[in-house]
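cache lookup: miss for this entity combination. No prior model stored, computing from scratch. Input as submitted by user K.M.:
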Amino acid sequence: MARANAGPILAAPDVETVLSAVRARGLRVTTPRRVLIETLFAAPGPVSAEEIASGLGGTRADLDDASVYGNLERLEALGLVRHVHLGHGPGKWMLADRARREYLHCDSCGASEAVEPSALAPAREAIRAATGYEARFTHFPIVGRCPQCVREAGDGPG
Amino acid sequence: MARANAGPILAAPDVETVLSAVRARGLRVTTPRRVLIETLFAAPGPVSAEEIASGLGGTRADLDDASVYGNLERLEALGLVRHVHLGHGPGKWMLADRARREYLHCDSCGASEAVEPSALAPAREAIRAATGYEARFTHFPIVGRCPQCVREAGDGPG
DNA sequence: ATACTTGCAAATGATTTGCCAGTGT
DNA sequence: ACACTGGCAAATCATTTGCAAGTAT
């Protein structure tokens, strides 16, 4: 659970900044590491390790699966990347965001979206009042039906 | 009970009632099926398919893994059992409950608990107001820190 | 009798581990 | 140089699929 030796989560403006942080925190700057980070910058949203390893569908350099998993884990330990579990299926990775946005996932159409933590403050408070739990939707999202599916399905089966 | 020939979710008072529903819905009553249901009644809470197949740690008859998975799936389709994904790790199965209780999971100590849906109505409403999502915590729980871990950890890193 | 089921083996998808040659610092 | 890394193979975990033999109805 412990975060690494350096500062908290870093907002990453560009690839070189992230690589500086990598070096500053004692990891080496290698080609696969650089490619991985470039791929995350190029990704349209959270992507699976497999998608990263296969270069986002061939548009960028391939990497070894095991190396990708290992690097994602190490970079996550340093607070440079993070991942979220959107419903079933593999974890989705992204560069760490300063605000650690929270996720919602529609189990009807599969869509997901991110919101600023402040938007869910009232919900978190309601959960705390009802159960004492301090909810966090950064790693495991709120799952349910998105507005569009609610509209389309009306009152479908629970 | 009052003729459960096809209604939606059935609250299961005992093994024989569930087996009657199994037969009423066109499935055969076989020994493995009976054992599976007895095991779910004997379980202390939601249990994994693997735990069911190995007889809750050897205290009851073993079953084949693949048969357990297949039967859980079929029984779930009939509304007789259901499962929840508590954090990482395998899905946890249980007999269907009339109220379809919702789950909370502590990613700090691993504990989980179930609450009546009504308890989370205000939270669901806050989520709807903020995002338009219709949240449901029956299949994917609210994840965060339980009251005890909040108390012990104070205000640790998010 | 016949369709539904079981049990065993093998396949899958996601992720981890072991190991040795390669390389950043 | 030397420890940190990458890549490849093999292992693991959770779950699914294929199929021949067994059984509920």
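stored under new cache key. Helices of chain A lie at 15-24, 31-42, 49-53, 55-58, 65-77, 121-131, 147-153.
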